[in-house]
Specification:
Elements (H helix, E strand, L loop, with lengths): L1 E7 L2 E3 L6 E2 L5 E2 L5 E3 L1 H15 L4 E9 L5 H10 L3 E5 L9 H15 L3 E5 L10 H9 L3 E5 L1 E5 L2 E7 L4 E7 L2 E5 L11 H7 L4 E4 L12 H4 L25 H11 L4
Parallel strand pairs: 1-6, 1-8, 6-7, 7-14, 8-13, 9-13
Antiparallel strand pairs: 2-5, 3-4, 10-11, 11-12
Helix pairs in contact: 2-5, 3-4
Bound molecules: flavin-adenine dinucleotide.
């Protein structure tokens, strides 16, 4: 038996960097460093653990849709231990929204071949957390999302979803899409051996034509959403310091009431 796992990994702009919108109100990715979305490291980790705990042959493919530099995210996932990578890159993807991104990802997952798709719970930039559900719908397979524990056995994926009031034990037949949370287990650091091995692992590059997609189905033209305007966040103002000379508590309450916090 063999198990093919595809892990979707997003290359995101470094949140500590200075980020801007370009003139067409798309995210300006030039001059901004990027990295593998931290929450997707948990998805890679869970794929590796499923592989390590399985008697089957498990093949882990990491997949990203993104610009040239998105290869860095793939290399990191490969150095953690994934077997191979697919990078979907095309100039016509410029300005693609979440609907378009899920279309491209679904086509690439189908082309790569899969039994299980593992995603992060959300990206650290867009943070919508909707891609796994969109993928399940497009692929026509069950989705089991927000798992803090996941395992695969006898053609089924099972896992635990922790809510505020209860924990649910969930199960779906394969093929399926799951997403995992940051409670699923610390992601491992790539070892030196892993980093060296990653350099030799295969990275396939696909464009839209490889996925039988037309430019108008994605990019700004195919987007279902449009950014109408964007305003830079105002600079932080200096805080108010309340000096306690006997009336501190009162002044504090007055300040909070003035801000409508109380
Ligand atoms: C080339 C390109 C240009 C884009 N330009 C813009 C833009 O200018 N403005 C804009 O608003 N949006 C743009 N997008 C779309 C946006 O960056 C997101 O990819 C998309 O909207 C997903 O939303 P999210 O990040 O909230 O995903 P979530 O639903 O929060 O992500 C959940 C999980 O889905 C997977 N995932 C999400 N995105 C990707 C991906 N790209 N590759 C692999 N796995 C993924 C990850 O596992 C992630 O943890 C662009 C996308 C691409 C590919």
């Amino acid at each position: 038996m063999s198990l093919r796992i595809v892990v979707t990994v997003k290359y995101v702009p470094d949140a500590t960097g200075d980020r801007h919108f370009a003139d067409d109100l798309t995210v300006d990715r030039d001059d901004v460093d990027g990295l593998l979305s931290e929450l997707d490291e948990y998805a890679v980790e869970q794929a590796l653990q499923i592989s390590e705990n399985s008697d089957d042959d498990v093949e882990i493919t990491v997949l990203t849709v993104g610009p040239e530099d998105a290869k860095d995210a793939l290399r990191k996932a490969l150095s953690m231990g994934a077997d191979k990578a697919v990078h979907v890159e095309d100039d016509d993807l410029h300005g693609t929204d979440v609907i378009g991104t899920s279309l491209v990802l679904a086509k690439a997952i189908e082309k790569a071949g899969y039994d299980l798709v593992i995603s992060g719970l959300a990206s650290t930039d867009g943070t919508m957390g909707v891609v796994p559900a969109l993928l399940a719908e497009r692929l026509g397979v069950p989705q089991v999302t927000l798992l803090s524990e996941v395992s695969v056995e006898d053609g089924k994926v099972t896992g635990r979803r922790d809510g505020d009031a209860a924990s649910e034990q969930l199960e779906a037949s394969l093929p399926a899409v799951v997403s995992v949370t940051d409670q699923s287990g610390e992601a491992r650091y790539p070892s030196f051996k892993g980093i060296m091995a990653a350099k030799k692992k295969p990275v396939e590059s696909w464009d839209l034509s490889d996925l039988d997609l037309e430019a108008g189905e994605v990019g700004l033209e195919g987007a279902w959403t449009k950014v109408e305007s964007a305003t830079a966040r105002p600079a932080r103002t200096a805080g108010t310091i309340v000096k306690d000379e006997g009336e501190g508590g009162k002044q504090l309450a007055e300040f909070l009431a003035g801000q409508k916090f109380i």
